[in-house]
């Protein structure tokens, strides 16, 4: 399992609240679901998407 990239603490807490602990866990969620989390913003999304692209992981459609 690939660790999450370094993003702001509120974003990490938001992901943790839905059980996302590793980059691969994001494949179970849509981009919109993640962006709708309290504490998660566009900056964190850009960082996540870059890391996901590097590892061949995509959000659920």
Quaternary arrangement of the chains shown? single chain
Q: Number of helical segments?
A: 3
Number of domains: 1
What is the chain-wise order of helices and strands? HHH
- Residue share in β-strands: under 5%
> Count the strands?
0
Radius of gyration: 10 Å
Mean pLDDT: 97
Shape estimate: globular
Biggest sheet details: none
State the secondary-structure class.
mainly alpha
Helix content: 40-55%
End-to-end CA span: 21 Å
Low-pLDDT stretches are none
Brief account:
With 61 residues, the protein is mainly α. It has helices at residues 9-17, 31-35, 42-54.
Describe this entry's structure for a reader.
- With 61 residues, this protein is an all-alpha fold.
- The chain has one domain.
- It contains three helices and no strands.
- The longest helix is centred in the last third of the chain and has 13 residues, at 42-54.
- The radius of gyration is 10 Å and the shape is globular.
- The mean pLDDT is 97.
